[in-house]
Queue: 4 jobs
Job 1
Amino acid sequence: MDWNPAPNGLLYVSCDLGGNHRTDFIAVRSIITSYYSPRTIGEAIFTHAQNLVFHVDYPMDRYYYIASTSPLFYAIDVNEDGTWDAMYKDVSRDGVNGNE
């Protein structure tokens, strides 16, 4: 649905698992680095192949956010009111498998 970098060095990625165009799941990832660059998106992805690349297009160049592939936190908004109902920390960063 959306993504938003925060001043605390985390990137919030909102998802709609219910298919009703309302956020009900949030994956919170660590931002590894961020920078301006005139490079293409393909070049940035090639350079950071082991991580996720998010970008904002500006007229002269792009601003890239390089984020970890595995989220550090998962948040769930059960009633989709914009307030997280539960948050899980994935210390091992091994995905949703029951040890969160």
Job 2
Amino acid sequence: MIKVGIVGAGGYAGVNLLGILLRHPKVEVKWLMSEPAHKGKSISGLFPHLKNNCELVCETLDDLDKNLSSIDIVFLALPHGIALNYVPRILKAGKKVVDLGADYRFNDEAVFKKWYQIDHPDKKVLAKAVFGSPELYKNKIKKASLIGNPGCYPTASILGLAPLVKNGLIDLDSICIDAKSGVSGAGRGANLKVHYCERNEGVMPYAVTSHRHMGEVEYQLGRVAGKEMAVTFVPHLIPMTRGILTTIYAKLKGKSEKLKALYKLFYKDAPFVRILDIEPCTKYVVNSNYCDISVAYNECTNTVIVMSAIDNLIKGAAGQAVQNMNLICGYDETEGLTGLAVYP
């Protein structure tokens, strides 16, 4: 039985992580930490759907050191720039870390600083972090002590593009990613952009040339390609609670006849990637750890079109974090994650 602690349990990613771990047959959740305003409050008081399922009381990061001895793995679900101040001491205590935030998604400190305007305090620790995409780095994850869990937009985008990039089938300068996310991706905090009256019945692009997840997509796909690359990435907020749909365009260099077979072969050992014969829909993946992908080809423009759908809070955050934990612990990567989407 693996004993875990969750830091950031008061946010959407954190509470979804807690929900998965409470159902996991080989995990015991020992403690929860959240923001100072939640200190001393029962998690079921913050999230009534947990009543009679979890009555742990929230602590804060001030309580971290005294609690480390009781657990094996720490999950960090925090805004960027916070985890990096605590991860070195957690590792020094001999514990493993899955960071759901952005602080360990780049092994290059200069690239991290470019996108987040923060100096990383420990470059040696940063260099040892493994990007937590099981479909790309399963064997490295199994040996890791520190996982940088991918972001939600990058998960859908990278999984959609990796087979084409790895096999050199597209013009890397032609990649255009149109991504749409449910409003839960913006977090639980108060924000005018996600106010009901602002978002209901409206679709809005934002951070058109500067979204930080663009840097993550470029950096990680560059590693797959073996060289630096840039993409056009445009995110949108849409009036639904959860889910991400990406539509990706690129100019094809090779033949188009066997694209679907290529994807099926590339993901043959990836239990949570489904290659569809129809266009994906966010409703097919809500509350599941699946990434649904389909691929099409426009002969008139020589354009390959890849469509991918995930639940931003599960495969894009909490579910993928548990998938990484399973690999670290030597469990089957699907353990505790085999639930179907909630449909309709």
Job 3
Amino acid sequence: MKKIKNFLLMTSGCVLLALGVYFFKIPNGFATGGVTGIATVLAKIIPVSPAVLIWSFNIILMIIGFLFLGKGNGIKTVYCSMFYSAITYILELFLPLSSALTDQPFLELVYAMLLTSVGSAMIFNADASSGGTDIVALILKKYTAIDVGKALLIVDFFVAASSFAVFGIKTGLYSLLGLFSKAFIVDAVIENLNTCKYFVVITDKREEISEYIIKTLHHGVTVNAATGEFTGDNKTMIHTVCKRSEAIKLRNKIREADPHAFIIITTSSEIIGRGFRSV
């Protein structure tokens, strides 16, 4: 089930990434970093289409990645890199664009960043990447003291800065704005995808609630004795975590089992452990 979910995440992410790149980034010259940015800039200088350049660069970088990083580079990254490149190429063949969709560059930058950021976040959340300059950053990390985030930012910054010389000041400024905004959007989307709920339940109905959590939701339960300082009543405190989609079901079940239960629900951006994300 998890493999199917990851496959759907990666595939959907690649589609969104390709749509954002082809319909909004390339026509406007938004070189916000990565292989896409390099291809967008070079396509303006040499007579080769951006889609062909994206595919070529991804293949070259994939080979370099296997040489320098080994097979750990990952079959998921190979799939995402090639599938994303293929979609971009197909769009270029069947839906050729001679200019931007609108005369509103800021509007198109918003859509470019939203589509590509959400797509990238979905791919990252499936423990994969779209290849490209991610591979360059990983190589720099392996052979230098620079961490991946800084290495990737340095590479992408120079790509975005090159758009000033090729497309002019306005497009260059848009490219830099897109580069920095993407990081925040990707983080926000990943955090939202991984949102979980932490329950603390003080109740008299330990067995019924615990059984539902274990047998129906298939999550673990931790319990400990609790004594109300004001009333002096002895109760049980149940601790558990669940996915956001399961939270309403659990809350309703607790209310059904014990209408007087005291429930504390907090939001967590990530849970690491069995049944959730692996380390």
Job 4
Amino acid sequence: MAKLGLFLSITTIIGALSFAGLSSPAAADAPCVTKVFKTELAKNACAKGGQKAAKDAMKAWNKEKKIKSCNQCHSKLAPNYELKKDGLDQFKKLGGK
């Protein structure tokens, strides 16, 4: 009986790891939720690598411009990343296109 319990435990762990391995790449390659882009940066990043690439591009831009939080320009983050009323203006004032 103990061998059966051990076998079931190992099977459960292997199954969970297999499922996690299969679902991670799909999330990384997810397309952008937004379909209308107001910036070239987000549009180009989404075209190249989906949601993850757009988020990475914006994080790099924020770091370059010394912006500490995405919430400076966005009222809501994932999945739609809604902008504040002045979010696009802030982006443009810092040199964004």
